[in-house]
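Action item from last meeting closed. Structure (368 res):
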């Protein structure tokens, strides 16, 4: 049985969320690791059953929107066939982010095998299906790009064989050998689950500070975190691109599928890294994907907003588009349709939140 705990409403494919534009199915992609063929197939599923776009999430996952309610069994079968639903019981707890460029450029270790092993270990433990579906593992290859995110349990490599096992944040943990970290993360996840059942409000490890303090060997650690978006352009033979508004259109997905020679990594900054595809940057940008770090789209993001979300006070995507077209040089900026600030980046940024529309209007006067 799936891990539905308390008022745990994070959607999955088997338990979608009903939004203003129809049902939303969220697909976990551990470490953001996928490939062009899978993305292309999923795009066709989105076109057959929903709005047609693939929405990228801040946890490097994907969402299908505008689906019928209830979601057709044919859609579930199609998602399963393409490999995005390997476990019915654990689909909503396979929440693992990892350094997107790991094994490609930078970092001190290739953590992709750790991500695969953690995902397999998680799915093999029936009781871990009861983790909150907000619970997040972060696996950082040493560069500090995901260890500064809010997460529950994590790993920060120090060298290829050692690192820090992180508990509740990137600032506390204990030394660990890379060879044992998966086992220890799963053991701590079990222990968190037991401890959280004694507290009605504990969704996250950080909610249980006494429990963290009781873990043998845990101490404050002083390591730097980067909190930066994944760099754009040609990097180590790969094409690193940003997806405007985090919505990969059918035409863009077809272009990615056509030119992805190897794996594709979804990034928490709502981009894609196509390994081996640097020579195809011009085709990707011709499809509207962004490879230029100076582009306004590299600095602007928005929640899905009206008319897709019940809570939205404004059409956030219209404001974001007007802001991008204004040509202004912008600091990192996120536009939210309400105080929840869905999808806001974790690093420094300008937060434009409705109903502060006067300020928005002064920035993007023509937006409606
Ligand atoms: S920030 Fe508010 S308006 Fe935007 S998607 Fe989240 S709940 Fe909806």
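Sequence:
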């Amino acid at each position: 049985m799936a891990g539905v705990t308390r008022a745990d409403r994070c959607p999955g494919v088997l338990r979608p969320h009903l939004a203003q534009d129809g049902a939303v199915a969220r697909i976990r992609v551990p470490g953001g690791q996928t490939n062009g063929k899978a993305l292309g197939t999923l795009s066709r599923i989105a076109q057959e059953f929903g709005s047609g776009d693939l929405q990228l999430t801040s946890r490097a996952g994907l969402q299908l929107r505008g689906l019928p309610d209830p979601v057709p069994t044919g859609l579930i079968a199609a998602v399963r066939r393409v490999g995005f639903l390997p476990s019915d019981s654990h689909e909503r707890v396979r929440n693992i982010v990892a350094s997107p460029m790991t094994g490609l450029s930078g970092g001190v270790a290739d953590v992709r095998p750790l991500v695969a092993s953690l995902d397999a270990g998680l799915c093999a433990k029936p009781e871990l299906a009861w983790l909150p579906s907000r619970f997040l593992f972060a696996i950082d290859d040493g560069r500090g790009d995901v260890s500064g995110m809010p997460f529950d349990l994590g790993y920060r490599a120090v060298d290829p064989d050692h690192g820090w096992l992180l508990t509740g944040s990137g600032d506390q943990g204990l030394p660990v050998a890379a060879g044992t970290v998966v086992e220890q993360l799963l053991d701590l996840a079990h222990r968190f689950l037991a401890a959280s059942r004694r507290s009605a409000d504990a969704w996250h490890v950080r909610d249980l500070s006494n429990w963290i303090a009781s873990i043998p060997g845990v101490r404050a650690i002083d390591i730097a975190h980067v909190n930066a978006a994944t760099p754009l352009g040609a990097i180590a033979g790969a094409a690193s691109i940003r997806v405007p508004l985090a919505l990969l259109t059918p035409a863009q997905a077809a272009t990615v599928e056509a030119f992805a020679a190897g794996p594709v990594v979804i990034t928490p900054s709502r981009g894609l890294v196509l390994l081996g595809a640097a020579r195809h940057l011009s085709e990707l940008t011709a499809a509207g994907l962004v490879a230029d770090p100076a582009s306004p789209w590299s600095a602007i993001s928005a929640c899905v907003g009206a008319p897709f979300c019940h809570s939205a006070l404004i059409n956030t995507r219209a404001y974001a588009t007007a802001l991008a077209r204004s040509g202004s040089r912008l600091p990192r900026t996120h536009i939210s349709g309400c105080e929840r600030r869905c999808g806001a980046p974790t690093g420094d940024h300008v937060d434009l939140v409705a109903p502060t529309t006067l300020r928005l209007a002064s920035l993007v006067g023509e937006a409606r």
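Note appended to the action item: The two ends are 45 Å apart (CA to CA).
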